[in-house]
Amino acid sequence: MAREKAQILDKDGIRRSLTRIAHEIIERNKGTGNLVLVGIRRRGVPLAERLAGRIKDIEGRTVPVGILDITLYRDDLTTLAHQPVVRSTEVPFSVSGKIVVLVDDVIYTGRTVRAALDAIMDLGRPKLIQLAVLIDRGHRELPIRADYVGKNVPTSSREEVSVRLQEIDGEERVVILETAE
Amino acid sequence: MGLIGKDLIGLRDMPAERIKLILDTAVPMKEIIRRQIKKVPTLRGRTVVTVFYEASTRTRTSFELAAKYLSADTVTIAAAASSVSKGESLKDTARTIAAMGADAVVLRHPMAGAAELLARTVDAAVINAGDGAHEHPSQALLDLFTVREKKGRLEGLKVAIIGDIMHSRVARSDIWGFTRMGAEVRLAGPATLLPPGLEKMGARVCSSVEEALMDADVVIVLRIQLERQQQGLFPGLREYARLFGINRERLRLAAPGAVVMHPGPMNRGIEISPEVADGLQSAINEQVNNGVAVRMALLYLLTGGGCRK
């Protein structure tokens, strides 16, 4: 069983991080023209929706939000203990020529992001793809780097970062769990 | 072992939650079919072998497309022309499949029980694509999927299956599938084509087509299998059309907006009139499309992951 080692972010911490990321997205892209957000299932989805809400508060413009399920793009199906259930990808707009901001809760090995990049490419040809994550915990296995990071958290590979969001988990915090050897 | 077990032999013993998982998985698969680039890398490096001892372009192509959309490699063994005896031929087939290192085998065979026999012989996942007059589970699953998509549910629906029940493996799988998911199944057809024991399967045998159609939400019209009609089980095609054919007048007995389905290929003007086959209530073309999505779901769930071997 995993033991809770430390809390990295509380409710206010998550809120502040997302507000900062929203500002950074607008600033780097000089506004919201051509911008779309795509959340990676599951916890990337509420985060993308929240970012869209912040961007609307700041710029007064609604940015489209899509949902990406990357199960069919994973390269590790044979090594997983449990074969994951496939859920829907819902990107009801064209990504071609757009600035796509992929949103996820944690970046770790980079394999999820790689799968998400493949999935996005199959939907069209974006002008640019950027990556926003709430937590970067290191240990990359692929040359992938996030453009927007809520918080960098150095972890050991025995630890696990658990992002708990109101929409899915009924609470708002980020904790480090330590798994027993 | 896949999410739904090693093989798919039939729906007779499949629990409702497993059927639901297959139908739920087919929803995102359908989204992929609608894309410009109909391909995902999920089954890259896997091999799917289709072995058809009976000709069936529709089902075979559907499975092949499903495998290709998931990036699996496909090999076809056209055994339709061979007439070797069952035991020998299946053993030979099993040897070939083992040698090919197949991950999944799709088998169509004229003898009931062939798929089960093969499943016990090979390590690969075996999918029954029709064995004699026994079962045709992937067709029934696509029927369930199409109805659920059209009606939003399966529970409580009235499903009429009309025609040659005796020779129809689709009918058998449909009866198991629809009743398992909480629908009411009524059957009608020539008395000579209604085998005994249908009530035990949970279906209601009606004395007339009209009785079966009354307020039905779904009408599944079965093909008169002309190739199996050498025994004279009904007087003639014209009489069949008059007594059992689904035409516009008969369809009015069904509930408004009832869905009409047919496993194909159709004998237009015999079991189904052209205006019904091409009418607004017909979901026959969608069935073909949904067939690929459902078969993608099956291949994913049976061979997608885990450590099967």
Describe the protein.
The complex is a heterodimer of chains A (181) and B (309). Chain A has a single domain (2-77, 86-179), classed as 3-Layer(aba) Sandwich (Rossmann fold). Helix content of chain A is 28%, strand content 30%. Chain A has helices spanning 11-28, 44-59, 111-123, 166-169; strands spanning 2-9, 35-40, 65-68, 99-107, 128-136, 148-152, 159-164, 173-179. In chain A, helix 3 (111-123) links the parallel strand 4 and strand 5. In chain A, helix 1 crosses helix 2. Chain A is globular, with a radius of gyration of 16 Å. Chain B has a five-stranded parallel beta sheet with strand order 7-6-5-8-9. Chain B has two domains: 16-135 and 288-305, Rossmann fold (3-Layer(aba) Sandwich); 137-283, Rossmann fold (3-Layer(aba) Sandwich), CATH 3.40.50. Chain B is built from eleven helices and nine strands. Chain B has 309 residues and is α/β, with parallel strands linked by helices. In chain B, 40% of the residues lie in helices and 14% in strands.
Mean of residue pLDDT of chain A? 94
Q: Give the SSE order of chain B as H and E letters.
A: HEHEHEHEHEHEEHEHHEHH
Number of helices of chain A: 4
Poorly predicted tracts of residues of chain A: none
GO biological process, one term (chain A): DNA-templated transcription termination
EC number (chain A): 2.4.2.9
Pfam family, one (chain A): Pribosyltran
Keywords (chain A): Glycosyltransferase, RNA-binding, Transcription, Transcription regulation, Transcription termination, Transferase
List the helices and strands and how they pair.
The complex is a heterodimer of chains A (181) and B (309).
Chain A: E1 2-9, H1 11-28, E2 35-40, H2 44-59, E3 65-68, E4 99-107, H3 111-123, E5 128-136, E6 148-152, E7 159-164, H4 166-169, E8 173-179
Parallel strand pairs in A: 2-3, 2-4, 4-5, 5-6
Antiparallel strand pairs in A: 1-8, 7-8
Helix pairs in contact in A: 1-2
Chain B: H1 16-34, E1 47-52, H2 57-69, E2 73-78, H3 86-100, E3 104-109, H4 114-121, E4 125-131, H5 137-151, E5 158-162, H6 169-180, E6 184-188, E7 204-205, H7 209-213, E8 218-221, H8 237-244, H9 248-251, E9 259-261, H10 274-277, H11 284-303
Parallel strand pairs in B: 1-2, 1-3, 3-4, 5-6, 5-8, 6-7, 8-9
Helix pairs in contact in B: 1-5, 1-11, 2-11, 3-4, 5-6, 5-11
